Input
Amino acid sequence: KSHAVMNSLKSMMPSQCNVVRDGMPRRIPASELVIGDIVLLKGGDRVPADLRLIQTSGLKVESSSLTGEPDAFEMSVAH
Output
């Protein structure tokens, strides 16, 4: 059963993502993310990894496929 859950989670991951690495914007395979990459998200993007938010503007997260919660919730930078 856990194998099926892991495969389901993998299918939700985007294959590519936009990052700033070494001061330069790039589009890379999500599997190549490393600590220190700054991931750039826009409306409709799927989050490619466990991230720390450093700046947001009106960010709402829809996570019903993981939590079962039907409504999107707002997220902001924790201080």
DSSP finds two helices and five strands in the chain.
